[in-house]
Design a protein that fits this description.
7 strands, alpha+beta, four-stranded antiparallel β-sheet, about 200 residues
């Protein structure tokens, strides 16, 4: 636009527009030239301001990156010296999550089984583990020559094997299973004999 306005002002000043008086040509040309100078200065200021803004934005981004890096280094440093949670609170950080200890499941004991005529065999045992930290896996031999098969799991120290055939031989054992696939040894065996 600046070049076009310069050309227009020059053309008017040189009398390229027929019908204007010389004073009108001069007045119009001067007005276009003055407005064009203001526009050129404003454009230059805008370019310089944009350049300065982009530079300021880059400086701010670089400074923010450096602050984040230093904060991360501080967190890792605190973790490496095993700072207590209160130190993290004092700085304004969330303390790191506690690492869950590996649970080695203990072997259940005192397994006992009682058969009922309603098609339920009731099992009880001593879990020997903290409540809610393991799952108990129950297996049964159904018939005295059959292999063990899993018949259920429970978080409690009791289990009801439903749908059994009253009078049939059932032999049970149970073990505890924790996370990461860790399991205990099998418990003692308990038997519901055929009648």
């Amino acid at each position: 636009m600046i070049d076009w306005t310069t050309n227009a002002a020059t053309g008017v000043a040189n009398g390229k527009v027929a019908g204007f008086l010389a004073a009108q040509n001069t007045s119009i040309s001067d007005a276009l030239t003055d407005a064009n100078a203001v526009l050129a200065a404003a454009n230059l200021n805008a370019v310089e301001a944009r350049s300065a803004s982009m530079e300021a934005t880059q400086l701010a981004q670089d400074a923010a990156f450096e602050v984040q890096r230093l904060i991360q280094d501080l967190k890792y440093g605190m973790k490496s010296v095993e700072s207590p949670a209160s130190d993290y609170d004092a700085i304004g950080f969330d303390p790191p999550a506690e690492i869950r200890s590996i649970i080695m499941p203990a072997t259940p004991t005192e397994l006992a089984a009682t058969g009922f005529s309603n098609g339920v065999n009731a099992l009880t045992f001593a879990g020997n583990n903290e409540p809610g930290q393991v799952t108990y896996v129950i297996e049964a031999k159904i018939g005295d020559t059959a292999p063990y098969v899993m018949v259920g799991t429970t978080r409690k120290q009791a289990f009801r094997h439903q749908g059994v055939i009253p009078g049939q031989f059932y032999q049970y054992h149970v073990r505890a299973q924790a996370s990461r696939g860790l399991v205990s040894d099998w418990s003692n065996e308990a038997v519901v004999y055929g009648r």
